[in-house]
Amino acid sequence: MNVLVVVEDDPGMRILIHEMLGEDPAITICGELADLDAALEAATSSCPELMILDHFIEGDVMGMEAAAKLKEACPTTKILLFTSHDLTVEVSREPAIDRILLKKHLDELLPTVRSMLGLDT
Asked: Pick from 87, 88, 80, 70: which is nearest to 108 by CA?
């Protein structure tokens, strides 16, 4: 079982992510959260294998900044920045983020998650 947490402020997008990934029996979504505080609690308590993180989350902290705090809380958690904004250059300078995927490539979410979890090897 591969466990992941979704950090996304838009409830509709959380539902869509859940529906897309929930069909894969190898993936367990153990949390769907909207802000950094809840994500830090999840990272500290369960240290998920993967966190799908939006750049625009609830609160004063953006996803790029949140990634470093999440990685500090659980260094083994992989972080996928899943956003509608092309932050490829900025992500290349943020070592806490393992990969970026633009929301316009929603059809690539499941293959990307499977790859990051090592399910396609």
From this structure: 80
